[in-house]
Design a protein that fits this description.
- By secondary structure, the chain is an all-alpha fold.
- 79% of the residues lie in helices and 0% in strands.
- It starts with a helix and ends with a helix.
- It has helices at 2-28, 34-40, 46-57, 61-70.
């Protein structure tokens, strides 16, 4: 049982790292598509990616992209 918990915790850490990389990529180059960024980081379900992103950062990927473009 502890192996499952450890595995789940490790996958959560890895997912968080990928989300942080996605956030950084959106901020760094808002001309890239969100789908391109997400797919490049291994997210294959765009709806789930957007949900994870929203939960992690309190904004959708598109909201972040639009905020960067308005700067």
């Amino acid at each position: 049982r502890s192996t499952r918990k450890e595995s789940s915790a490790a996958s959560d850490v890895y997912k968080r790292q990928r989300l942080e990389r996605a956030h950084g990529a959106i901020v760094q180059d808002p001309s890239r598509s969100i789908a391109e960024i997400a797919l490049g980081l291994g997210f294959t379900n765009m709806g789930r990616f957007s949900q994870y992103f929203q939960n992690a950062f309190g904004q959708s990927p598109l909201d972040v992209k639009n905020a960067v473009r308005r700067r």
